[in-house]
């Protein structure tokens, strides 16, 4: 019997979304925003503009940012365009969300003079939180900004979920993992879903590279208590042997764990830089990057109320 008192590690949703968007951006658009995907000339390629995004929105004081990605690409008519993807993964609605979408869109367009499409992906579990536009009006001077929005839990229905499981789009696995991570609290059920999603990759015959990348994302999103994680891995190894596909080896697993810890460290350093300044983040970089997962999680909670960087470690 599983020890129900054993805590489930805090799920990380920011890092896996960033990695998934970078690895499967065309597939992301094809699944969640098919109309936009159809209007892009993919033969001309695309590039991520994270540095430009950081510079543009650095001074925008409109709430927390999560897995924001800025991508440069070309429309079918050959004209350049930028796509701003904002993934909202917090559990509660945020009143400033629509305003932030407007501010970022305006700042990017103003700085570079290119058309910008701002896309919202809401991964929270509140069915009422559905921001799709920002409106402001003063004495007849009005702003009405609208943006495409996808609510992931809309897929969690008997009518739509089977389409995700049957989809040959690899990004469907990311969406399913996010939904199950947010909606499933029971550890045994989380383990069953994690194994089911991993099996789908093998059953679809994905290449080893894709299996490892998607495994990393799913593993980041769906965390398990230690004993259940060990049980899950043993079942996975047994299944791999039966399929003669020993992909997720012990070495790969160690690399995935290292990558997860680095993701948490990077996120905490970003929080410190935004709250206490770049000098504080640089001074603490070595200590944070060498810390274990438990310490990183503890400090990530403390930074929400800490008045100084030193208060993180008290």
Features:
disordered N terminus, alpha/beta, 314 residues, 52% helix, two-stranded antiparallel ribbon, five-stranded mixed beta sheet, 13 helices, Cytosolic protein, globular
Structure description:
There is one protein chain. The chain is of the alpha/beta class and 314 residues long. Among the domains are: 25-154, no CATH class; 256-313. It has helices at residues 14-23, 25-32, 34-38, 50-57, 97-112, 161-166, 171-183, 187-203, 208-221, 226-243, 250-276, 278-289, 293-302, and strands at residues 47-48, 69-74, 80-88, 116-122, 133-138, 141-146, 149-151. The strands form two sheets. A five-stranded mixed β-sheet has the order 1-2-3-4-7, sandwiched between helices. The chain has a two-stranded antiparallel sheet with strand order 5-6. Strand 2 (69-74) and strand 3 (80-88) form a beta hairpin. Helix 1 runs antiparallel to helix 9. The chain is globular, with a radius of gyration of 21 Å. The two termini are 37 Å apart.
Parts with pLDDT < 50 across at least 5 consecutive residues: 1-6
User: What is the general shape?
Assistant: globular
Helix content: 40-55%
Termini separation comes to: 37 Å
Q: Report the order of strands and helices.
A: HHHEHEEHEEEEHHHHHHHH
The largest sheet, given as strand count, sense and whether it forms a barrel, is: 5 strands, mixed
The portion of residues forming beta strands comes to 5-15%
Number of helices: 13
Number of strands: 7
Instruction: Give the strand order of the largest sheet, numbering strands 1, 2, ... along the chain.
Output: 1-2-3-4-7
Instruction: Provide the structure class.
Output: alpha/beta
Integer-rounded radius of gyration: 21 Å
Assembly of the depicted chains: single chain
Protein name: Cytosolic protein
Organism: Thiocapsa marina 5811
